[in-house]
Design a protein that fits this description.
Layout: H1 2-22, H2 28-31, H3 34-49, H4 53-76, H5 82-103, H6 106-121
Helix pairs in contact: 1-3, 3-4, 4-5
Length: 146
């Protein structure tokens, strides 16, 4: 019983920290360490997919592996070639997805794909022209201010 309460509390804190970081301007994920990103990814997937302890541990290992690789790629992209960066990140995500599929059941994988698509739709406009959810335009007041 004590383990269940501790696990639930840990999961709740991880999810809350995920939402607080994602609400920060400038993209909170870029300011996090690979370990923090992996923990949050594992917590999110555990919550959304009802992962077993073994699955959650494996998902965290996979997330950490690719968070480190992506961090290295970001740091190596000093020239700002965003097109090449997008290709690199896409290839890494595809590799990561293949590893996730080995850990998740087919039902969990299908659920994860749908959840991820929904999150992508709701993330808002991205650098490089990718669109997500449209941002609300501020209406000007009579004095011309926002």
């Amino acid at each position: 019983m004590k383990f269940a309460i501790q696990s639930t509390a840990t999961l709740v804190l991880a999810v809350l920290s995920l939402f607080s970081v994602s609400a920060q301007p400038g993209g909170g994920w870029q300011r996090q360490s690979p370990e923090e990103r992996a923990s949050q990814q594992a917590a999110l997937m555990t919550e959304k997919l009802a992962l077993s302890e073994a699955q959650a541990e494996k998902v965290k290992e996979i997330s950490l592996k690719y968070s480190k690789k992506m961090q290295e790629a970001r740091e190596a992209n000093t020239g700002g070639d965003w097109s090449a960066m997008r290709e690199t990140m896409t290839a890494m995500r595809e590799e990561q997805d293949k590893e996730y599929q080995k850990v998740l059941t087919s039902e969990q994988w299908e659920t994860w794909v749908k959840e991820r698509e929904e999150m992508m739709k709701n993330r808002g406009p991205r650098p490089g022209g990718e669109e997500g959810r449209p941002r609300k335009k501020k209406e000007k007041t009579d004095d011309g201010s926002n």
